[in-house]
Amino acid sequence: MIAGFSSFSNSYSFPNVDSFERRLSSRFENFERFLDSPGAVLSQMARILRPSAPAPAPVAEKKASDPQNVSKAGLEALAQKTAAKYGVNASLVNSVINAESGFDPKAVSKAGAQGLMQLMPTTAQELGVTNPLDPVQNVDGGVRYLRDMLDRYSHNVPMALAAYNAGPGAVDHAKGIPDFPETQEYVQKVLSHLGSY
């Protein structure tokens, strides 16, 4: 019976099967090329591991934008007030702002993170931040998110900072600070500036 089917299938064309086979072969070739690119694999893995979290936010590049009338001292005071509101260490909040945006309220990263605490658009929306470039809204949303990460990781500051940068999915998967150079540098940068505020 099987031998009969084999001779039957070899003598007839099955357009749907042939088309499916070509599409499948093409997809495997694309997948093999994808696997040959370590950067693409890591980027895709990072995206999968933190589907609802912001992507790692590179240190913001400052765009030429409207002059900001807010002084650094005023922004530090805003951070201190907001930190007290949510029970977060003010020095930690100011250190995060320094690492994220260098105290530039109009900072926008290549990845699209915005404002003082570099909120990704999706995260800002989830936090109810309607204008991420508004220092008050941005710091309020950023401190609440930082507070959530501190609570999630039992107030382990390095892990909370890693989650703030790379997303909690990446931290959960790594069971610690992910092996992303950017995230490791970010955590060190924030911690090294804690005594400055």
Task: Walk me through the structure.
By secondary structure, the protein is mainly α. The protein has two domains: 35 residues; 141 residues, Lysozyme (Orthogonal Bundle), CATH 1.10.530.10. It contains ten helices and no strands. The radius of gyration is 24 Å and the shape is globular.
In short:
This protein is mostly helical and 197 residues long. Helices cover 62% and strands 0% of the residues.
Keywords:
197 residues; 2 domains; 10 helices; Lysozyme; 62% helix; mainly alpha
Query: Which whole number gives the mean pLDDT?
Result: 80
Number of strands: 0
Structural class: mainly alpha
Quote the CATH topology of the largest domain.
Answer: Lysozyme
Please give the count of helices.
10
Q: Count up the domains.
A: 2
Annotated CATH architecture of the largest domain: Orthogonal Bundle
Measured between the Cα atoms of the first and last residue, the distance is: 82 Å
State the helical fraction.
55-70%
Helix and strand sequence: HHHHHHHHHH
List the helices and strands and how they pair.
Blueprint: H1 2-11, H2 15-35, H3 38-49, H4 72-86, H5 90-101, H6 121-126, H7 135-152, H8 157-166, H9 168-174, H10 181-192
Helix pairs in contact: 4-5, 4-7, 5-10, 7-8, 8-9, 8-10
